[in-house]
Amino acid sequence: MDVPAGAEQLHPARSDLNEIIRFRYGGLDNMGWSPRMRLRFGYFTPDEFYEAVVKKLVRSRLSWLDVGSGRHIFPGNEPLAYHLADRCAELVGVDPDPTIDDNRIVRHRVKLPIEEFRTDQVFDVITMRMVAEHIAQPDLVLESLARLTKQGGRVVVYTVNKWSPVTLASWLTPFWLHHPLKRLLWRSEERDTFPVRYAMNTRERLSALFESHGFSERHFAYLDDCRTLSRFRALHFLELSAWQIARSVGLRYPENCLLGVYERA
Question: Which of 52, 69, 167, 250 has a CA-to-CA distance to 78 between 20 and 30 Å?
Fold first, then answer.
């Protein structure tokens, strides 16, 4: 995982990640074979890194806007979502999809695209979890983010890397095949599969977009993603072994996600 110099304050320490694991599973007795295997390898998922960064940012009495909330703010870590929701002063979820009606963690649900959300309120923290890959008009979204973020506030973008193998395969695969493949690999539901655009899915593109709208990059990391084969014990072991070998020789694992934090000037 590559982390830029000067970003150490937001980069999660091992203790931060272990705390996320405690929220997610409660203890070793509640873990299945897959998370146990990952821990033996010393590997933490991109989701866990993202959750640790958001936990650092969402402090007491701050206002939080989650873009693309859907049914869950943190799929797979509902205890942490409730903990942070109780901590902050305000939590608003924005998503045009009907799945937001099932979200019981956000305090206010707005069933609109972020580009159409109008309010006099500005937010300390805005999060975008696996949303950027679906955005067709990034400049319109950035205009809204600039309008909705307090001066000194942060926007957290967690998304797939445009040049990772799974992303490239998704780009080349007809959309009607996306759900069957996702169901095979990750048991996902059809209502959680959406068209992809990849219009803001490189570090360079994200940085250029945010800088042009008055933000500066505060933190950035490439997060190694060893979850593609996590349903299959032997294949997941090979996946983690390949990650360990790449790490030992200083190579970035080819399948990775992007995590950026951008501060409003």
Answer: 167
Mean model confidence pLDDT for the chain: 90
Six token digits for residue 125: 């923290």
Compute the radius of gyration of the chain from its Cα atoms: 18
pLDDT at 190 over 50: no
Beta-sheet pairing, 123-129 with 149-160: parallel
Nearest to 79 by CA among 54, 105, 44: 105
Whether residue 240 is predicted with pLDDT greater than 90 in this model: the reply is yes
Is the confidence at residue 86, as pLDDT, over 80? yes
CA dihedral 26→28→29→32, nearest 10 degrees, is 100
Q: What is the predicted pLDDT for the residue at 21?
A: 96
Residue 162 phi/psi, 5-degree rounding, is: -55, -30
Domains of the chain (ranges; CATH) run 14-264 (3.40.50.150)
Q: Closest Cα partner for 77 from 11, 29, 17, 126? A: 17
CB 129 within 8 A of CB 236: no
Q: What pTM, to 2 d.p., does this model score?
A: 0.90
